[in-house]
Structure formats: C-alpha cells, structure tokens
Known about the structure:
Blueprint lengths: L7 H18 L3 H7 L4 H9 L19 H14 L1 H20 L3 H13 L4 E4 L15 E5 L2 E12 L6 E7 L5 H4 E7 L5 E6 L10 E11 L4 E2 L5 H37 L1 E2 L2 E2 L4 H29 L5 H25 L10 H9 L9 H11 L3
Parallel strand pairs: 1-4
Antiparallel strand pairs: 2-3, 3-7, 4-5, 5-8, 6-7, 9-10
Helix pairs in contact: 1-4, 4-5, 4-8, 5-6, 5-8, 8-9, 8-10, 8-11, 9-10, 10-11, 10-12
The chain binds flavin-adenine dinucleotide.
The site of flavin-adenine dinucleotide has 23 residues, from strand 1, strand 3 and helix 12.
Amino acid sequence: MPRSIFEADHEDFRQTVRKFVQSHVMPNYARYCEQRLIDRELWLAAGELGLLGLHVPEAYGGSEAGDWRFTAVVLEELSSFSSGLSSSFGIHCDIVAPYLCELTTPEQKQRWLPGFASGELISAIAMTEPSGGSDLANLRTSAMRTDDGWILNGSKTFITNGSRADLVVVAARTGVGRPSQCISLFVVERDTPGLTRGQKLDKVGQEESDTAELFFDDAVVPLDNLIGEPGRGFPHMMERLTQERLNCAVSNLAHAQSVFDQTLAYVKSRKAFGSPIGSFQHNRFTMAEMATSLDVTRSFLHDCVMAHVEGELTNVQAAKAKWWSAQVQNEVLDHCVQLFGGYGYMRETPVARAWLDGRVSKIWAGTNEIMKELVGRDLGL
Length: 381
Ligand SMILES: Cc1cc2nc3c(=O)[nH]c(=O)nc-3n(C[C@H](O)[C@H](O)[C@H](O)COP(=O)(O)OP(=O)(O)OC[C@H]3O[C@@H](n4cnc5c(N)ncnc54)[C@H](O)[C@@H]3O)c2cc1C
C-alpha cells in the first residue's frame, strides 16, 4: 500500500535511518543482546545523524523537526529490525523529549538538551513502581522539600534505559490530596547521592534494551531539577501519554509488518508435500487475513499520525490505536511462528525473537485493559 502520509523529505530521512540500522546496529546487534545493553557509541552515532533531537529546538542542538512524521519514520525503521532498539531510542527521543523541551526553564534546557540531542546524555522516565503501574495516581515515591534540595524516597521498576540513563524523569508525591495537585516531576541526574540501580531485569525478550529498578534512599535532588509546575506532575504525564501511545502503535505495526514480510518469503520457499506451504488454502487464508489486518490497521494509524501532526489526536484515539495495534501485532506474530514450524520456536530465527519481543506491547505504557477502560469511559460506560 502506498505510504500516503509520508512526503519526499520523510522518505529521504527514512534512508538515513535505514543506513544507520544497517551500518551501526546490525554488525553489533548480537553483542548488544548478549550484554543486554546498547553501546554508548550507538547513541552518539544516532545523535550525530540527528535521530535524537527531532523535538529539540535548534538553539539547543536539535533539529526541531516540528513534524511528528519524522519520529514515525525513526520508529518504523528501528522496529522493523528490533522492537527493543525502538523502545530504548523511542523512550529517549520521543517520550522523554517533550518533558525536557516543554516543561523546562531556559537554564534547564541549556543544561540538558545539547547532551540529550547529541547522545551524550541518555534518558529514561520512571513512573511505574513495584506496587503498581496501571494505577499511576497511587504512586508512593515521595519528594520532600528542604533547604538543601528535594529528598526522594521510594523505588521505581521496569525502567527502560534504567541502568544506563544519565537523566531520569521521576514522578514523585510532593503533597497529600488529589493526584492532579500532589505529584511533581524531577530530573534525577546520574550521580545523585542516594540513587542506586538494581540489576538489569531479566526479560523474556528485547534483550538489547536495558530495563532496571531504581532506588531512592534519601536521594538529594537539587531544587532547580524540578520540571513543570510543582504539584502538576500528574496532568503533565497524562497530557504526554497520548504521544507515547501513538509511538507504541506505530512501532507495533512496523514490527508486525516486518515479520509478516519475512514470513511471506518463507511460505513461498518452504515446501511440504511437494508444494510451497503458502499454497495450502489454510495458510493462504492466514496470510490473506494478516495482510488485511495490517492494511486496515495502517489506515487508522495514519489517520492518527496526521491528527497528531495537526495537534488534534485525542487520548481516546491514541488508546484505540495502541491496544488494537498491539492485538494485531501479537496475532500476526503468533501466526508467523506457526508458519515457520519448528524453526519458529528456535531463538536463532528472527520470527521467534520477534514473538518474544512483541508480547510486551499489550502490557507497557498502559495495558490493553487500561486502554479499553479509556475507550469504554469515552462511550459513557
Ligand atoms: C519491558 C518493560 C519496559 C517498561 N518501561 C517502562 C518505563 O520506561 N517507565 C515506566 O514508568 N514504566 C515502564 N514499564 C512499566 C509498564 O508501563 C507497566 O508494567 C504497566 O503500566 C502495567 O503496570 P504493572 O506491571 O504494575 O501491572 P498492574 O498495574 O499490576 O496490572 C496487572 C494486570 O491487572 C490489569 N488491571 C489493572 N487495573 C485494571 C483495571 N482497572 N481493569 C482491568 N484490568 C486491570 C492490568 O491490565 C494487568 O493485566 C515497562 C514495563 C515493561 C514490561
């Protein structure tokens, strides 16, 4: 299907991202998985090519693209090769970026954005806690104001880029009362006294992206590391979750499409009973159903991307896009594993890896159930 929403500039940029994946990622990918960490050099290379600073104003070293389709291109190209890579980079350049670009003072921008855009400062965002992620309003990490700074206590878990991050946007409770008035956001820097990091968590997939626990034990955060309006952290997060969910949806679809394409080639070449396995009616229908699902999903997603470019994407549209694309992605991945037979169950086969990598899309950034809650509430239910 033609990529009707992308123009010549986006397609030129796509070639840059594709070359980045081929020349910088592919040769080192096995090692990233083994060490469960992406090399810092890869972040610097991405920064050099302008992949990290799409949201960052030019005055602070970014390219200030002002058109979210460039971000969609980055996500599509990274997810087509590895959803873990897309997650690590996506958290930095698309999820954290709006916090650092929109909620900061000029002095804070000057401190953080140039390094953020160049890849010298890797970032993470820490909302989820061991006691729960879906019910964000009930987070327990606290921040108490003193003359020497904010004193943070508590812990966060499942934090993407957590073991490596130089800057972590942390949500903490700064008062009592309604969530919309008593949660604030802080940028916690690498060497903050009282910040410790747990072991990298042992995930079933996405080995290359590091995911860690963070502990705050009387961690002293400078007063001027608070970002946004004090006490308004919860609405600040809610406003930015729309983009985060669209980000997930775009990645989900690109990941599924890439695995589908690999499977199409396989079912044409693999033979059983003297015929290509794709020629059996059951498998032909399975492929036809997947092709249809992917195209229909793309159509809705492209509408969502364009709505976002125009500043009109709603929280509910983004929730629909996220849960639906995750569902389609997981159905496609499962069918593809089946079509690869025994090879589909071997870690060395990309489709097996993709199956393990993709499962989390129904869980993170708001589970499918929570997305359906948002859609259901919008229906007045
Ligand atoms: C690999 C990975 C990376 C992640 N990266 C980050 C990150 O960078 N930063 C960050 O802050 N978080 C991150 N997360 C956390 C993620 O967003 C949470 O795991 C997610 O929001 C779910 O929270 P939970 O795990 O505490 O599940 P819970 O909230 O305990 O939910 C458990 C189950 O109960 C269901 N449930 C809960 N409430 C309802 C309800 N009202 N109705 C119906 N069902 C419900 C959920 O859908 C789920 O199935 C990451 C998670 C993973 C796995």
